[in-house]
Amino acid sequence: MNILCAYNANIDAIYKVEGPQISLVASDYEEEIAAGLKCLPGSISSIPDFFAGLFSCMQHGTGAEWMILDKGVYQWLRSNFLDGSFLRMGGNMGIMANVLSELGASRVIPNVPNPSPLQMSFFSDRAIFIPYEGNMKKSSHLSEGDSSVSAPELIHFVFDFRKGDTFILGGKEIRVPRENRFIATYDLLNFELYADEHFSRYARDNIRDMEGALIAGYHLLREVYPDGSGYADKLRRSLDQLSSWKADNSKLQIHAELGHFASVNIASDVFSGLAPIADSIGLNEDELTTLADIYKVSSSGILDMDAMSVIRTAASLCDLFNIGRILVHTREFVISVSRTPVPSSLKTFEALQFGIRCAAAFACTGKLADRNTLVAVSSEIEESGHGRMQIAGLEKEIPLVYRENGVIAEYRNYSVCAVPTRLCSQPVSTVGLGDTVSSAIFLRELELGS
């Protein structure tokens, strides 16, 4: 399988939050944080804004990614948290490219906004090839030892917190209800959906040899940029690029992965723009709820992890925009709602099982091994009890076609595949699990020819 990957890659600095320690650091900003929690800013222009975002996520067990709008705050985060962080590949596209490479894709071509030696050192060296100065190079050739490559690092701070941890908020002790993460991002290149000229040229000249394209990074778009421009031109540039790929290769399968958007306007324009181009769109329960609210579709039950609510909402969005497939990945289950004929859905079902096994093994070990090892590791990881219960309950709601560690069902004119996730009790990190699920599913479906 030859696969293009765009647009966002960066370096994640993963910081394990300790409640008492983070409470102490935040104690100097109590009044400002309290004000921020009453009306969440949604972006970071000050240190109290950062704590408001982090503490809101910790209090509710939710995840979010906020943009840092002030370089001074970014420097403060570097000074206070970088030394205690674990550095790894970041960015949806970067993570997905590595998953594809490690799981056996033939050739993976990523767009790299910042080809620095450190960034290159985090790319898999198995099947990833970088278009660079007219040549295709393995990432190892552009890493630490190549002095010809120089670019500023793009570091995103990922604050991982654990279920059961406690912190002080407004003088009260708050217990975290579930593990998740808060991401603080300062990144001028990925904010613009930057497409490297070498990548763009290679994609244009070799698109007929590609089986698939995995696309992400749209959630980093901003309403207003430092030069006063907006996101519309940047989004249109990307959509035109994808459309040209499809025009030159009608068999190309495009999967677009969404994220936590800065505004409903951006979310709406991205979704409606991708809908006629992408063959499938992936998102989590928070993002599905956001889209449902935008388009006046019922979102009741989604955040409670009700599987039938997820199916109804995904099908309604497919109806509105004539989308071929929506893939919803949550902590408890993964659900595909598609126009694929039900008899062909066994391939999708197999791909979903493969995806949740890869994500479970990755969560527990922090790395991807060969497929036999992944299956062995994931077999020891228990299925989500809530996910299993929700999927078993679908039998009362819609006709089932197949059932084995999940179900294939019919809903209106859609085929539904639903499988419970496998939950690692002590994950190495929760970052990138949705990207791992989506990219593993995408690769397996390409292999199976679905």
TrEMBL record:
<protein>
    <recommendedName>
        <fullName>ADP-dependent glucokinase</fullName>
    </recommendedName>
</protein>
<dbReference type="InterPro" id="IPR007666">
    <property type="entry name" value="ADP_PFK/GK"/>
</dbReference>
<keyword id="KW-0963">Cytoplasm</keyword>
<keyword id="KW-0479">Metal-binding</keyword>
<dbReference type="GO" id="GO:0046872">
    <property type="term" value="F:metal ion binding"/>
</dbReference>
<keyword id="KW-0324">Glycolysis</keyword>
<dbReference type="GO" id="GO:0016773">
    <property type="term" value="F:phosphotransferase activity, alcohol group as acceptor"/>
</dbReference>
<keyword id="KW-0460">Magnesium</keyword>
<dbReference type="GO" id="GO:0016301">
    <property type="term" value="F:kinase activity"/>
</dbReference>
<dbReference type="Pfam" id="PF04587">
    <property type="entry name" value="ADP_PFK_GK"/>
</dbReference>
<dbReference type="InterPro" id="IPR029056">
    <property type="entry name" value="Ribokinase-like"/>
</dbReference>
<keyword id="KW-0808">Transferase</keyword>
<keyword id="KW-0418">Kinase</keyword>
<dbReference type="GO" id="GO:0006096">
    <property type="term" value="P:glycolytic process"/>
</dbReference>
